[in-house]
Amino acid sequence: MLRRASLLPLLGSATLAAAGGVIGAAWYVTTRVSPQHPRHYSDRYIFTPWELGVPFEEITLRSADGLALTGWWLPRPESRGVVVGSHGHSGSKDDLLGIGTSAWRAGFNVLLFDYRGRGDSEPWPHSLVSREVDDLLAAVAYARARVDGAKIGVVGFSMGAAVAIMAAAREPAIAALVADSSFTAVADVVAHGVRRTLGIPPAPLVRAADEVLARRHGYRFTRARPIDAVGAISPRPILIAHGGGDTTVPVEQARRLFAAAGAPKELYLVDGVEHCGAYFADRPGYCARVNAFFAHHLSEC
Q1: pLDDT at 265
Q2: CA nearest 155: which of 111, 118, 189?
Q3: For the range 250-258, what are the long-range contacts, defined as Cβ-Cβ under 8 Å and sequence gap of 24 or more?
Q4: Mean pLDDT across the stretch 206-231?
Q5: pLDDT at site 300
Q6: What is the pLDDT of residue 212?
Q7: Which end of the chain is more exposed for a tag (fewer CB within 10 A), N or C?
Q8: Which domain does 138 fall in, by range?
Q9: How far apart are CA 259 and CA 228, in angstroms?
Q10: Does residue 9 have a cis peptide bond before it, meaning omega lies within 30 degrees of 0?
Q11: Which helix (H) or strand (E) holds 179?
């Protein structure tokens, strides 16, 4: 039998190995939260509003820290209504061509833009909600400068929905919001991913990843909590949409957001569909509901 003293080096090695494993896993989590995708020529091989027969203008706006963000402006000169699209974490503005061109056909000006580091916008490490809030606020400022007396609605998906909630809480010029597949907090969705993929208690890894991210990129994802911001949107209206079969962001998070939101509010759940799947389950029905929501609430501004 080994004496207790002879176990100490082994225990020390095991502790170091466990710590190294946590740090390694935390580093991997940060690469998922803040990836840096190399640019490729094929990134520009995307559909534009031209393929859908919609007039548009290529525009550039500036973030608060001076980054160039690219976008498309779909004009309706006769209207003061503007719908701004907010895409997901690894997406770009062309992901929103369906809902964007539908809003244009419903009579709204539409602004679709790329968050920092995505699409044609200036390269930058992605963050998950943290710095994108300022980008969306810059897009809203652009719309207000472009349309005198603009009545602005935002439609966001996944990260873009979470960003929109936090931006709307800060910016009263956002008069109505559709938040599809938002999470309650970045830490909540990271923790869910850890449980689902690794099958381990998530708290130590979430804390370690947050610390690594702060050292690598200068922000903490644990501070991004739409659940704490959504109540500040009232009395402006919010429509919360979610797929009932979402395995990325469980539908319970949509219910929690809805409970925390003030009136007026709507909950639009689609049974059996995955993350951001409500649009694809019934495209005409989804667009009709979103356009009707904006038409009703923006006309009241």
Answers
A1: 98
A2: 111
A3: 250/192, 253/182, 253/183, 253/184, 253/188, 253/189, 254/181, 254/182, 256/184, 256/227, 257/165, 257/179, 257/182, 257/184, 257/226, 257/227, 257/230
A4: 83
A5: 63
A6: 79
A7: N
A8: 56-185+224-299
A9: 11
A10: no
A11: strand 174-180
Count of domains observed in the chain? 1
Instruction: Please provide the size of the chain in residues.
Output: 301
Q: Is residue 49 part of a domain?
A: no
The pair of three-digit structure tokens given for residue 190, joined into one six-digit string = 């990271």
In a domain, 152, yes or no: yes
The counts of H helices and E strands in the chain are: 10, 8
Distance CA 33, CA 126 (A): 7
Q: Is residue 13 part of a domain?
A: no
Poorest-pLDDT segment among 57-71, 215-229, 268-282: 215-229
**CA 90 to the chain's CA centroid:** 9
Question: For residue 155, which of 291, 11, 8, 28 has the smallest C-alpha distance?
Answer: 291
Q: Is residue 197 part of a domain?
A: no
**Tokens coding 191:** 């923790």
Neighbours of 19 (CB within 10 A): 11
Q: What is the CATH number of the domain that holds 85?
A: 3.40.50.1820
pLDDT tens by residue, 122-139: 877 767 777 899 999 999
Residue 160 has pLDDT above 50, yes or no: yes
